[in-house]
Amino acid sequence: MQELRYTSFFQRHFSDDGASYERTRLLQYEHSETSYGTIDEVHEIKITINKNSAKLLRLGSKGYTAVRGWVSLYGPGLVVMLAAADAGSLVTSAEIGKEWGHAMLLWQVALIYPLYITQELAVRLGASTKKGHTELLKQHYGTFVSFICTCIVVLTCFGTMLAQITALIGIADALGLSPVLVCTVAITAFILIACGGMASKIEKICLGLGLCELVFFVSAFMSPPTIKDIARGMVYSVDFSNKRYTYLLAANVGSVLSPWMIFYEQSAVMDKQVTVEEVPAARKDILLGAVLCQTICMAVTLAAASIAWNGSYTNEPVGFSAIRDVADALAPGGAFGGKMLVYLGFLGSALNALMVVCVTAVCTLSEFSGLKKNASFLQSSVSEAPIQYGIFVMLLTFSTALSLSGVDIIALNITVNILNTLFLPLALLLLTNLASNPTILPAPLTLKGRERLRYQGILLTLGVASLATIFYGGL
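Request: output the structure for the sequence above.
Response:
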């Protein structure tokens, strides 16, 4: 076996306004001299040559700038996963814990892997094609299919926006504040951020908002169930013959595997100009986000189950009818400070999801109409993308006005998740077919063989099963 070592140089040449750059990869053998001086990233590469095959292994990165480049890949996966754990998902998780105790905890753990592989396929497609998901669907399946998908994604995004704004209204009511004032301030801030020259910072802002959800771990820690309680709940409360149980189970799937997440992830990967070589690092971002998303939802379920059932699985649990009820139940120790922490978690989750789904809807419409050219509208100024920014403002304004008219947040959140589940089988089928096409992805990233069978088997079975449980649950 022979070994050949060389250094891979990545140079970025930024445009005058700093909005775009060209990336060049340079290879330098290990013992050769270089005159490139300070560079953006330096990677040490090892190639192992065995007969006619070669295996490329990245050994590591050197220097502060290399670490900075690696960290810069993190963001899309974490942001979209935290957006998946939005106010609707948290309410659904609390409702599950309230009605069924710990019965669905195993399902929440089991959903981590499907959530990961779904977004991982979107990363492969975005890094390889440098195109958004809607654009790929239009290119390979035609205008009609992409039109149907665009309509459904925009509809589910709008429904999700309504759910987040309704959550803001619930928080404002609980705190004795004016819902109109709170929503106006939040929406105005988002519009000023997007249109005021800070659009490139939206991902970091959303990440900061999403991390507010970590407070729910405190709720779970302050009201921890015993292992015996969890085991009894998993066995005693599981009831597939109960239509309400299967309905909430389908809603739980829809709250985690939302089709709009695929569209956001692929567009975000394209915007960050993630390369094929950087896909392994992007996978870590997705895995971290998937685990974080589900553990947050599990923490809410655990806390709600502990409070509502109080260790008993023979009595009717305490009901939740509003955000105030959910927050009061999850507040650590029932103290005022604990309630404020829970409201902070709901506020961060709602604002993060609101921004992410609004951006997703605009990008999806832009890709279908041909307005988006290799970059999100957030990479352009208002004067360069007036239509996209106009749609962005219109969606935020209209959804706020509609939400203020009065909506049942509990019913709305579950309905939106059910709508996501209805679209899920088609979205997963199209996603896996695109990822299995050798003309779209390079050979190392194309789904084939056992990997294809595993991915398609898990995702399509989950999609069809979720669809069946909805109809069985009495849709």
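The chain has 18 helices and four strands.
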